[in-house]
């Protein structure tokens, strides 16, 4: 299974390591080379410097053979734009997109994107802790 992760922040790097350990073929794309320092020394995937909304860069990252595209940058707009490119232009079978603003969730759903909001997830976890 080939996975392309856009964004090598804490979550992107952690996900890349977990998937790499499970023998996924992982490519991580980030606009900053210094972000790759977050990857484990044992990471066996590919790390590329580039913009995930640039179609040529996505081609170089192997998006045409990608099974799953995950957008994990800090920017909701970049994530949704890259996710739409992956889904509608490159026809990636599964596209997952992080969004910080939970008010955008419904919009992303109407665009056919599989999106999650860490804001909503974390608030629910804290609520469960309070109630337990």
Short description, anyone?
The protein is built from five helices and six strands; from the N terminus they run βαββαβαβαβα.
Task: Explain the overall architecture.
The protein has 132 residues and is an alpha/beta fold. The protein has one domain: Rossmann fold. The protein is built from 5 helices and 6 strands, in the order βαββαβαβαβα. Strands 3-2-1-4-5-6 form a 6-stranded parallel beta sheet, with helices on both faces. Strand 5, helix 4 and strand 6 form a beta-alpha-beta unit. The chain is globular and about 45 Å long. The N and C termini lie far apart (39 Å). The mean pLDDT is 95.
Q: What is the approximate shape?
A: globular
State the CATH topology.
Answer: Rossmann fold
- In DSSP terms (H or I, runs of 4 or more residues), the helix count works out at 5
Average pLDDT confidence is 95
Going across the biggest sheet, name each strand in turn.
Answer: 3-2-1-4-5-6
What's the CATH class, please? Answer: Alpha Beta
Tally the beta strands: 6
Alpha-carbon distance between the two ends? 39 Å
Sheet bearing the most strands, described? 6 strands, parallel
What is the CATH homology-level superfamily?
A: NAD(P)-binding Rossmann-like Domain
Strand fraction equals: 15-25%
What would you report as the Rg, rounded to the nearest angstrom?
15 Å
Helix content: 25-40%
Give the count of structural domains.
1
Order of helices and strands: EHEEHEHEHEH
Kindly name the structural category. alpha/beta
């Amino acid at each position: 299974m080939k996975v392309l992760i856009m964004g090598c922040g804490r979550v992107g790097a952690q996900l890349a390591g977990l998937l790499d350990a499970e023998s996924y073929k992982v490519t991580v794309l980030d606009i900053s080379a210094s972000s790759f320092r977050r990857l484990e020394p044992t990471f066996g995937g590919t790390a590329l410097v580039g913009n995930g909304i640039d179609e040529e860069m996505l081609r170089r990252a192997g998006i045409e053979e990608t099974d799953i595209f995950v957008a994990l940058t800090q920017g909701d707009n970049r994530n949704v734009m890259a996710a739409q490119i992956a889904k509608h232009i490159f026809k990636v079978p599964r596209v997952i997109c992080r969004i910080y603003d939970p008010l955008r969730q419904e919009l992303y759903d109407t665009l056919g994107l599989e999106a999650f909001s860490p804001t909503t997830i974390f608030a629910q976890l804290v609520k469960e802790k309070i109630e337990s």
